[in-house]
Write a structure and sequence with these properties.
Length: about 130
C-alpha cells in the first residue's frame, strides 16, 4: 500500500483515498490534488560503471567516483568552484612588463608554429585588403 503525507495536518493516509484532497483535514479543497503539492522522496539511481580517462580503471559507484577524483586531484567539469572563491590576480600592465611577456612568448614559439601564424596573417591581409 502506498501512503501520502499531508503538508497541512502531517497525517499519513492511503494514496487511493486522496482523490480530491486529504481525507483527514480536507487539504486540497475538493479539487484534484496534483502530486507536486506533496513531499516525496527522490531516489537517485547509482551511476553505471565506466572506464576512467585518468588511469583506465573501472569506476563502479558514486562514492568510488568521488574517491577516484580526490585520489587524482581532479575536478568534474561543471562543478569547479575554486574560481569563485579565489581572487583573480591582476597582471602588471606596464609597457616594460608587456614587452618582456611578448618577447618570452615569441621566443617560446617553434619554427612550425611561427610559419602557421605568418601564413594566417598573410592570408588575413590578402583577403581583407581592399583594392579600389
Amino acid at each position: 500500500m502506498r501512503l501520502r503525507k499531508c503538508n497541512k495536518c502531517s497525517e499519513w493516509s492511503s494514496v487511493e483515498d486522496w482523490g480530491y484532497g486529504c481525507p483527514s483535514c480536507g487539504h486540497g479543497n475538493g479539487r484534484e490534488v496534483s502530486y507536486s503539492e506533496f513531499p516525496g522522496v527522490l531516489v537517485m539511481p547509482d551511476i553505471q560503471p565506466y572506464q576512467s580517462q585518468l588511469d583506465g580503471s573501472i569506476v563502479k559507484s558514486r562514492s568510488h567516483h568521488r574517491q577516484h577524483l580526490r585520489q587524482h586531484n581532479a575536478v568534474e567539469v561543471g562543478n569547479e568552484t575554486a574560481y569563485l572563491t579565489t581572487p583573480h590576480k591582476i597582471p602588471d600592465t606596464s609597457p616594460q612588463k608587456r614587452q618582456e611577456l611578448l618577447r618570452a612568448q615569441f621566443n617560446a614559439i617553434d619554427n612550425k608554429t611561427f610559419k602557421q601564424f605568418l601564413k594566417r596573417d598573410i592570408d588575413n591581409v590578402k583577403w581583407n585588403s581592399r583594392e579600389d
